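stage 2 :: seqdesign
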């Protein structure tokens, strides 16, 4: 595993668990985090655990209005996690202002998102969703900044921000 990705994963795990030092995470635990275990809920369970807008986006591939997410102005250190299952998806260090009105990231935490082709809206796009719960989050475009050149265009309602502790 390349060092940068390992450090990103370790930081995300540390932030999520409230650790103040990455050094407290053993390599064995970090390896376990990469193996994302799937969860499944009934439609009724999803409806009971999410707001109507979260449910529409995560379970029915809806889209929130641009510039409506408070996460657009979130600039603290931490992680952005799936609101449906708490899986960390993005490090705050990968967030950037794309000017599109949706939270955008140039990289995700390895193994924590999955993709599929989306041919709706009369074009072909790459949809991404949470690797644990399958919740829809947005689309990936190739117009992002270096080093990846990618833009993960996210529905803020599908994310929650977990600030870095300490």
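stage 2 :: out
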């Amino acid at each position: 595993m390349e060092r940068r990705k390992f450090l990103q994963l370790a930081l995300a795990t540390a932030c999520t668990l409230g650790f103040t030092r990455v050094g407290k995470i053993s390599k064995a635990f970090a390896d376990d985090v990469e193996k994302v275990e799937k969860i499944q809920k009934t439609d009724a369970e999803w409806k009971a655990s999410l707001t109507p807008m979260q449910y529409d986006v995560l379970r029915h591939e809806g889209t929130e209005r641009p510039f409506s997410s408070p996460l657009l102005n979130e600039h603290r250190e931490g992680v952005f996690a799936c609101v449906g299952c708490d899986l960390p998806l993005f490090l705050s260090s990968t967030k950037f202002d794309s000017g599109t009105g949706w939270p955008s990231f140039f990289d995700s935490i390895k193994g924590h998102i999955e993709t599929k082709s989306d041919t709706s809206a009369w074009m072909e796009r790459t949809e991404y969703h949470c690797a644990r719960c399958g919740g829809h989050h947005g689309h990936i475009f190739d117009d992002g900044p270096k080093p990846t050149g990618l833009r993960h265009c996210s529905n803020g309602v599908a994310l929650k921000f977990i600030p870095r502790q300490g």
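stage 3 :: structure notes
- The chain has one domain: 3-163.
- The chain has a mean pLDDT of 83.
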